[in-house]
Amino acid sequence: MNIIETIENRETALTVDELGTLLNSSPKTLYKAISAGRLPAYRIGGSIRLDPHDVAEWLRDRHTKN
Fold first, then answer.
1. CA 64/CA 26 separation, integer angstroms
2. If DSSP states are collapsed to H, E and C, what string results for the chain?
3. Cα angle, residue 4 at apex, residues 27 and 26 outer, rounded to 5°
4. What pLDDT, on a 0 to 100 scale, did the predictor assign at position 63?
5. Contact 49, 15 (CB under 8 A)
6. Spatial CB neighbours of 50, under 8 Å, sequence gap ≥ 6
7. For residue range 25-44, what is the model confidence (pLDDT) as tens digits?
8. Quick one: pLDDT at residue 66?
9. From CA 27, how far away is CA 47, in angstroms rounded?
10. CA distance 30 to 9
């Protein structure tokens, strides 16, 4: 199973830190992508969450462009 499938199979939303760990990327980089509107995310209270299906789609789009 690749990383995209692993993320897509999650049943709960991801935190920025969790996604950063999975992608080996810094939370700062992910927050910048979210702020710029490149990475889909939503807020629950004061916390940012990422839908695993949206993230998987985002990763697939990035993979096909490279």
1. 22
2. CCHHHHHHCCCCCECHHHHHHHHCCCHHHHHHHHHCCCCCCEEECCEEEECHHHHHHHHHHHHHHC
3. 10
4. 78
5. yes
6. 13, 14, 15, 16, 19, 39, 40, 41, 42
7. 999 999 999 999 999 999 99
8. 62
9. 13
10. 20
